[in-house]
Write a structure and sequence with these properties.
single chain, 196 residues, alpha/beta
Length: 196
Amino acid sequence: MHRTIFTTPGVNSLLRAASLAFLKLKGWTIDGSLPPGQTKFVLIAAPHTSNWDLPYTLMVAFALRLTPYWMGKSQIFSWPFGGLMRWLGGISVDREQASNLVAASAAALQAADFPVQLIVPPEGTRSKTRYWKTGFYWIAHSAQVPIVMAYMDYPRKLSGLGPVFVPTGDIDADMVRIKAYYAQFKGKNWQQFDHQ
């Protein structure tokens, strides 16, 4: 994993203060924290329905003192913004060649010798989707790390970290429980979020 804005001394403290001030000014409430004793997680980022999700997610990550990495489509990592996106914690994903993405992500999580949270939006896109992608689940299961159910509810201006979920390997049963938790939240463009 590469150095990011969250692991850059000085910058981290300055941007945390700015993020807390901005979120408070906008009326957002931030809740939750990472459970103690565990340093590696997969964070579900849902619902993901707007370009605004990224800046808000980054500010919430600063507020909660996270060290996140996130996946984004390869196009946003093109020049001239590629370096900036990687510094913000981005990992480029080529959707046409994502067959080994789960294995590579799980291996990176296992190899990291520092606290890391991999943020994965289950929709895989901001557009309306009928089904969630299951990459986040298999990354956590393969890396043998828990899933933290992070959320962003725009109508209530509420964001944070929900319960920890340990994948059992029974994806059908586990996904029913995970999606039931997210049924209470609405994204910015909530009509595009499907809880199926």
